[in-house]
Amino acid sequence: MARILITQRLVDGGDAVLRASGHEVLTRDADGPMPHDELVAAAAEVDAIVCMLSDQIDAEVLASGGRLKVVSNVAVGFDNIDRTAAEAAGVAVTNTPGVLDAATADISILLMLSARRQASAAEADLRSGRWTGWAIGDHLGLDLTGATIGLVGLGRIGQAVSRRLGGFDTTVLHHTRHDTGRKGWTPSLLDLAGRSDVLSIHVPSTTDTHHLINAEVLAALPDGAVVINTARGSILDEEALANALEAGRLHGAGLDVFEGEPVINPRLLASPRCVLLPHIGSATISVRRAMCEMASQGVLEVLAGTTPGNLVPADA
Ligand code: GLV
Ligand code: GLV
Q: Exposed, middle or buried by CB within 10 Å (0-12, 13-18, 19+), for 191?
């Protein structure tokens, strides 16, 4: 019998697979990241850790355990886990790819529509009582229909966004480092930006993608473009985005992820043209349950000595 630590409360029933496994399950009955010292101490005593993207699984945590075999992130992204340290310590890492693609792509589309049509600013007017009645010149936004959308990255989520955009009569381009062989591939990120009414980020957070969308890329966007980020905050230079918004260069932005989560850049908070969501890309009941199940399966397979399909490869 192995001992499994769950670092934060899961969705209702999310621990059912682990509880049914016969292993000992230790649950920290709280939301939010597990304090680092508690995590280091707990890691020394367990065979497996089920954690969230807000838990920092660093070298100290990974090196603390003699018996730790697997860290299972209830997320598709794994930039919160020190992969090099995990490999050195012989600890497997698993994630939850696939099950959240549709839900996250939906939020990308929601943000595109909200930012183009300025839905948040319009709703704020209504709620504050500033709206006094229909007027032909009020709350004028930009169409999504007919726009050119530039996808930065074309993984599973980027492809799901592209499929959805087919319903909006848009032109969809994408930039990836290697030729995808698909229509719309644009080898240069700056060229993509220069043609994009909507620039939407769909790459993972790595050292290569840190501030990939910087002042130079934002300056290449046509006037009145919008920037969408449902990937990771670190990919977009938020100060550069705030400069572009404050200068009136961009029509708006739609963000579900932030550089200093959960602290939000005050300049973005102050920008009515920025639609801000609290990292809800995968937040549906069914998807969050599926993520918990997939994370649990990964743990059980590693403990059973088999290679799970959701193992994060060493060079990912
Ligand atoms: C959410 O951001 C995830 O990585 O699953
Ligand atoms: C708008 O509500 C319209 O009827 O045109």
A: middle
Clarify whether 279 is annotated catalytic.
yes
Cα(252)–Cα(232) distance, rounded to whole angstroms? 18
Catalytic one of 60, 87, 239, 261? 261
Assess whether 105 and 94 both reside in one domain: no
Task: Give the model confidence (pLDDT) of 159-182 as tens digits.
Answer: 999 999 999 999 999 999 999 999
Q: Does this model's pTM top 0.85?
A: yes
Is 273 assigned a catalytic role? no
- Rounded distance from Cα 90 to ligand 2 centre (Å): 62
Nearest residue to 225 via CA among 258, 205, 203, 247: 247
Residues 176 and 108 in one domain: yes
CA of 53 to the centre of ligand 1 (A): 7
For residues 268 and 155, state if they share a domain: yes
